[in-house]
């Protein structure tokens, strides 16, 4: 790992730590409730933890959260609605990343075929179509940076 990589990693760790501290602080309930959509069609466990922490804290403050994920629903919060798209190829736990990556530093990079599968299958799922049709009803849409790669496979 280069010095630049270490510096960027440290900045990211500090940012996550700061966001965790701020999200757990006592903040007044907002005057209004917002509808927030988390589009997470391909997330790892670590990304899921980060997004779920943010979503739970927003839900605790009265916001309505909708989450599209590749993992089974895990929240029991009444303000969080989660659904899994069910595309088997994106099941992170069933993949052996050592089979897909030739170099060890690429081990955390998702295999390209996952994005191709998402690009081909995701919009055929009725709940995804419903969310797409209601996209303007959301006040905020949160998207994992991984999914930006899907558009290059469409």
Task: Give structural notes.
There is one protein chain. This protein is α/β, with parallel strands linked by helices and 154 residues long. It has one domain: Rossmann fold. It is built from five helices and four strands. Strand 1 (35-40), helix 2 (45-60) and strand 2 (64-69) form a beta-alpha-beta unit. Helix 1 runs parallel beside helix 2.
Subunit organisation of the chains: single chain
Q: What kind of sheet is the major sheet?
A: 4 strands, parallel
Q: Roughly what is the average pLDDT, rounded to an integer?
A: 76
CATH domain class: Alpha Beta
CATH superfamily: Glycogen Phosphorylase B
Give the number of domains: 1
Low-confidence runs of at least 5 consecutive residues: none
Taken as a percent bin, the fraction of beta residues is 5-15%
Helix content: 25-40%
Radius of gyration over alpha carbons?
Answer: 17 Å
Structural class: alpha/beta
Order of strands in the sheet with most strands: 3-2-1-4
CATH architecture, please? 3-Layer(aba) Sandwich
Provide tags for this entry.
single chain; 154 residues; alpha/beta; Rossmann fold; 4-stranded parallel sheet; 5 helices; 4 strands; globular
Overview in brief:
This protein has 154 residues and is α/β, with parallel strands linked by helices. Strand 1 (35-40), helix 2 (45-60) and strand 2 form a beta-alpha-beta unit. The chain contains five helices and four strands, in the order H-E-H-E-E-H-H-H-E.
């Amino acid at each position: 790992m280069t010095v630049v990589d270490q510096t960027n990693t440290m900045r990211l760790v500090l940012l996550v730590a700061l966001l965790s501290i701020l999200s757990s602080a006592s903040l007044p309930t907002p005057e209004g409730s917002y509808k927030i959509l988390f589009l997470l069609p391909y997330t790892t466990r670590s990304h899921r933890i980060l997004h779920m922490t943010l979503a739970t804290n927003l839900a605790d403050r009265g916001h309505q959260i909708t989450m599209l994920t590749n993992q089974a629903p895990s929240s029991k919060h009444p303000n969080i609605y989660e659904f899994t798209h069910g595309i088997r190829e994106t099941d992170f736990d069933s993949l052996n990343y050592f089979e897909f990556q030739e170099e060890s530093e690429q081990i955390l990079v998702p295999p390209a075929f996952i994005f191709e599968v998402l690009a081909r299958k995701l919009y055929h799922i009725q709940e995804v179509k419903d969310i797409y049709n209601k996209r303007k009803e959301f006040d905020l849409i949160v998207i994992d940076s991984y999914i930006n790669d899907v558009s290059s496979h469409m």
